[in-house]
Design a protein that fits this description.
Blueprint: E1 12-16, H1 21-32, E2 36-41, H2 46-54, E3 59-63, H3 72-83, E4 88-91, H4 106-133, E5 138-143, H5 156-176, E6 181-188, H6 197-201, H7 203-212, H8 225-232, E7 243-246
Parallel strand pairs: 1-2, 1-4, 2-3, 4-5, 5-6, 6-7
Bound molecules: NADP nicotinamide-adenine-dinucleotide phosphate.
Residues 17, 19-23, 41-43, 65-67, 92-95, 115, 143, 145, 188, 190-191, 193-196 line the site of NADP nicotinamide-adenine-dinucleotide phosphate (NAP).
């Protein structure tokens, strides 16, 4: 009985930024649990496609640059045409820019906020509306960060965006819970992906970070799969507006 709660057979998930890193790990985890995948990327997600199809699931690649909201209608209509719509939305695409707060440029502010926060909101709005129109249950999972809870250093637009993701997750959950849409977030800790390459290549920062992680290691994309399947499945039907840290204990220190 309990395993059925996590079964995603026949469901369709839109996953943004899944050519690599955490997005790829979550797409593969969802496919393993039974989902077809609508992959939204700037570049062809060839490896992800190959691995999802090897699991016996269908895969649709939608080319989109989420620096603007322009591609959102097309993403949703392609999902509609191919799969009759999507049940799950993973807002994962994101970027980070690093510079001292005194030096930080307006370009680095806008580039990060546009993808991490603005497109996340408007894609959620379009997905949520489609669920309501079709009377379909929806699950939205936003990818937050430790910097949804903490200030960080040298990443002002990233901190603003990820703190905003936590707030928006609550707001959307408050408005849409009665409409059958669960909105939650996952806050990954320090994970070994392109996003943290600069930190991992800096011996001092890398030592400091690792020394503070109770689990004693950087996280991997596979570490997010359990939380993702949980929040995408019936098992989380009464979980709304929560941001779940998957951080090896970082926030507990
Ligand atoms: P990553 O390997 O750099 O992946 C980021 C993904 O976002 C890539 O697929 C990237 O596509 C996509 N993306 C960036 N800008 C885009 C745009 N304008 N349009 C469409 N897609 C775009 O890093 P990651 O660690 O897997 O990051 C995934 C998410 O987790 C991000 O939201 C990040 O902030 C968050 N996160 C990561 C960590 C960590 O420790 N790694 C911790 C907390 C939160 P391209 O490959 O084409 O650039």
């Amino acid at each position: 009985m309990s395993a059925k709660l996590f079964d995603l057979s026949g469901k369709t998930a839109i996953v943004t930024g899944c050519n690599t890193g955490l997005g790829q790990g979550m797409a593969l985890g969802l496919a393993e649990a039974g989902c077809n995948i609508v992959a939204v990327n700037r570049s062809e997600p060839k490896e992800t496609q190959q691995r999802v199809e090897a699991l016996g699931r269908s895969f649709l690649s939608v080319h989109a640059d989420l620096a603007t909201t322009a591609p959102i209608d097309d993403i949703l209509s392609q999902a509609e045409q191919r799969f009759g719509g999507a049940d799950i939305l993973i807002n994962n695409a994101g970027l980070i820019r690093r510079a001292d707060a005194f030096e930080f440029s307006e370009q680095d502010w806008d580039d990060v906020i546009n993808v991490n926060l603005k497109s996340l909101f408007f894609l959620s709005q379009g997905f949520g509306q489609a669920c309501v129109d079709k009377r379909r249950q929806g699950k939205i999972i936003n990818i937050a960060s430790m910097l949804s809870f903490q200030g960080g250093i040298r990443v002002p637009s990233y901190t603003a965006s990820k703190s905003g993701v936590l707030g928006l997750t609550r707001l959307m959950a408050n408005e849409w819970a009665t409409k059958g849409i669960n909105v939650n977030a996952i806050a990954p800790g320090y994970m070994a992906t392109n996003n943290t390459e600069a930190l991992r290549n800096d011996p001092e920062r890398s030592r400091e970070i690792l020394g503070r992680i109770p689990a004693g290691r950087w996280g991997s994309p596979e570490d997010l799969v359990g939380a993702t399947v949980f929040l995408a499945s019936r098992a989380s039907d009464y979980v709304n507006g929560h941001t779940l840290a998957v951080d090896g204990g970082w926030l507990s220190r």
